[in-house]
Design goal:
alpha/beta; six-stranded parallel β-sheet; Rossmann fold; 41% helix; 2 domains; binds guanine; 10 helices; three-stranded parallel β-sheet
Amino acid sequence: MALRIDGKMISAQIKDELKEKVAKLKEEGKTVTLAVIQVGNDPASTVYVGNKKKACAYIGIRSLAYELPEETKEEELLELIASLNKREDVHGILVQLPLPGHIREDQVIRAIDPKKDVDGFHPQSVGALSIGEKGFVSCTPAGIIQLLKRSGIAIEGKECVVVGRSNIVGKPMAMLLLRENGTVTVCHSRTRNLKEVCRRADILVAAIGKPKFFDHEYIKEGAVVIDVGIHRNENNKLCGDVDYDDVYPHVSAITPVPGGVGPMTIAMLMYNCVQAAEM
Ligand code: GUN
């Protein structure tokens, strides 16, 4: 039977470890603090931000919520970030994406002090990751490394295939797998023979953004499959980029959707906040 990698359980473990650390920091007089900024009221963003605040409350991290109206000017947002950068009692700053169209996301991300960039989106954080220096790592790929490690799955020397090249998942995922001494291939929409490339993978990271795209024809017998996708199917049920039931008999381990990669993203955000406060 293949291992069903339980992201809910592993993320709960991490959060409990962090809870102890946060309590110790509090004893030393330091209250770990995360500023969460949302502009507008995109319903999905509201859910994500709510979950982040809940996780903070559970761990004992103080969260400062800034809910700004849709019409907020880029300049005003940049001013808020500048003031949070200066505050010694604020350790992490998170601006929920996407932002309204009139605000330039790249400018906003660059405005965050890299020492407080708990999302790991700042070019300096991305650069540090690619040259193996210290810096914050994007939460979803960092969470995937934790899922593998805590499930006893070795990465060193393995053929790792990442499908998707986004700045938030695909690219940092490739860098992290490389850092763990995997042999890494990154695929994307222009990749020829995607099926053949995927079938080489000992570890396949599916982040293509299409529901149930990957069936057993993409999978080598005994591979480890990590599903980053999250979609609602025709019956309003959550599903991933991987056709779980079709693939399951062929894998050695696989993450479900929901309850796989998803819960790890927030756990790693909390991890980054604690790191920021410890620095
Ligand atoms: N929007 C969707 N995912 C994320 C994330 O991980 N961080 C931020 N800031 N915005 C997001």
